[in-house]
## 1
Amino acid sequence: MEKKITKIGVLTSGGDSPGMNAAIRAVVRTGNYFGLEVYGIYRGYAGLIENDIHRMDNRSVANIIQRGGTILKTARSKEFRTSEGRQIAYNNLKNLGINGLIVIGGDGSFTGADIFSEEFDIPCIGLPGTIDKDIAGTDFTIGFDTAVNTAVEAIDKIRDTMDAHDRLFVVEVMGRDAGYIALHSGIATGAENILIPETKTNIEDIIKNMMEKEKRKKLVNLIVVAEGDDFGGGDAVGKAIKERLPKADVRVCILGHIQRGGSPSCMDRLIASRMGFHAVESLLEGRRNVMVGIMNNKMNYIPLKQALKSKNKIDTNWLKIVKILAS
Ligand code: F6P
């Protein structure tokens, strides 16, 4: 028989994302509503190992729904990758009587949760918190909507100066392994080219295309590049174009971590609140080692392993749309 859940822990792990605070708030308040003791674990798995674990009441999560970052702080823990580290983490939970864990993070955090709950008798629930949106089983991840809107706002500003000077801009957005931010922000800002890690970049094609545009005096061009694009990101693309198109006035802008911060959008606050509530409910209903996602606006539960293995696949048809709309 499943053990009754009485005390739960919540942590944020990996890269932070806007909306993590809204998720923490939802977990804490739902847990308290159901009469559970809720504990916040600081700095992800690192804090779990260092016993940086504190009781949270409803007031401790007041006035955070609108704040970016994570009040629990986050980290990428090397020690948790070792079985010794995980043993210490388990002992700390056991000493406090915590018998359910909610992990808000990306795929690396889920890998940790999955191994941990297989080694020890502790049910873990994952909430997809990453700006990259590269997780299967959910249409959106907590933070993606805010990050992509930050990118769009920044690129719109770049477009003003780009247009004033008749320039070619290469804008690099985040996404080491995933092109969602590039694809969404690129389409929304009318980019001529979008380069993502999921497809091979043919720089010769892009240069040919720019040469053809130069001939017909179309000098204002925007190329949005994901940082993990195989050609080497924004700087490499900008350099190659400058070399081959000496007349073009080329500038490179790397948006960087600005995309990770800021007040979460309504959408991110909403999905984080819904996911947080259902994470606690899941533990109480006896679910274990699943990720709580939202698909077609309905809650969706998939094993953590599946969320890891089958990363969300980019629909490359979207790239066809880019070509047609930017001609
Ligand atoms: O996973 C989120 C993300 O922002 C990626 O898009 C990016 O490549 C990475 O984290 C950056 O990580 P760090 O903040 O450790 O440099």
Note: The radius of gyration is 22 Å.
## 2
Amino acid sequence: MSQPLVTSIYTADPSAHVFGGRIYIYASHDIDDGPPLSDVEPFKGSEGNAFKMRDYRVLSMDRIGGEVKVHPPALDIKDVPWAARQMWAPDAAGKDGAFYLYFPAKDRAGAFRIGVATSKSPLGPFVARPKPIKGSFSIDPAVFTDDDGQSYMYFGGLSGGQLQMNSNGVYNPTAPKSVDLPKDQPALMPKVAKMRADMLEFAEPPRDAAIVDQAGKPLLAGDGARRYFEAAWMHKYKGKYYLSYSTGTTHFIAYAVGESPYGPFTYQGNVLLPVQGWTTHHSIVEFEGRWWLFYADSQLSNKTWLRNVKVTELFYNPDGTIRVIDPFVSD
Ligand code: FUB
């Protein structure tokens, strides 16, 4: 069983990247800040209220197994003009010597939006743009840059992540609170949008990144063990696009493979079996010719909202499928 990478603070939702030969992990910074936020206006209907994060901390290391440095706050909610609360799972990207931190937070109306902050260093401090990305909503941004230099953002999360409140791209806080659409309808899909060359805005309206079964049919809302819930991540392996994600209520990290960054993505199976705690969130990154799964569980606190990030090696089978990882079994 992998052990927490750091124990001095609680961290979750690790998005790992290699910049200049060093591994950087952009994580949620979990805090124990009293009881869950109350279910009152303007936040009525929101869930995930125990996750009250207010800043981001970056972890870094020069190799897997090496010393893990915990860096000072990279971005604090007080320095984000539009954000009111709940800085959830972030991601980062680097381009032409600049670094971009992407993050969801609730605005003053209680709607999750996705912001971007910039820095000359992968460690920050990052300076937030005054407004969220136009046309952004929901949570869990993951920015993938293809071999041709074009970047795409994948995002969205059900339930407390509000994907079901944004079905037309317009925030509707009175949308049914139920996690899923009717069971026999196609599930809500993660969203994908091309990023503008300056990495600060979408270059197009977000569209569905369809996850389909082997027959090419969209996964259904009632297919809880396979349908998308939150925590999208994109990586490329041998020319194919691997979209991995959390199934939320059933606690798997699953994956689906496509021929284009837009999909459709055909469901393949699981990457990671359920971890300790309710949430599961990951990233997959290549470092020096080996592949690594960064993930989080609640080993240190035994509380679902106080998590710790971990890493374990990920292996492909010769046919390109991923060997399933059981977090409670060491190799
Ligand atoms: O950390 C808060 C939320 O929990 C994330 O945004 C989700 O992916 C889940 O891990």
Note: DSSP finds no helices and 20 strands in the chain.
